[in-house]
């Protein structure tokens, strides 16, 4: 439950997956790709927080 390094790996994978969805859907449905941008920002912020906790410990 408190393994920060494993959580960092998972959240980086999530960040890559969300960015991949945006890139893949950009040509087909630009509105849905744009709607994923706030989620990408939120996941990037959570990754930054998790990374800083990882580095401080």
Order of helices and strands: HHH
Give the number of domains: 1
Number of strands: 0
Q: How many helix segments?
A: 3
Coarse shape: elongated
Q: The biggest beta sheet, please? A: none
Distance between the termini: 15 Å
List low-confidence stretches.
Answer: none
**Beta-sheet strand percentage?**
under 5%
Q: What value does the average pLDDT take?
A: 95
General description of the model:
Helix content is 84%, strand content 0%. The protein has 57 residues and is mostly helical. The chain is elongated. It has one domain (4-56). Helix 1 runs antiparallel to helix 3.
Write the layout of secondary structure elements.
Blueprint: H1 4-25, H2 30-35, H3 37-56
Quick tags:
57 residues, 3 helices, elongated, mainly alpha
Summarize the structure in short.
The protein is an all-alpha fold. Helices cover about 85% and strands about 0% of the residues. It has one domain (about 5-55).
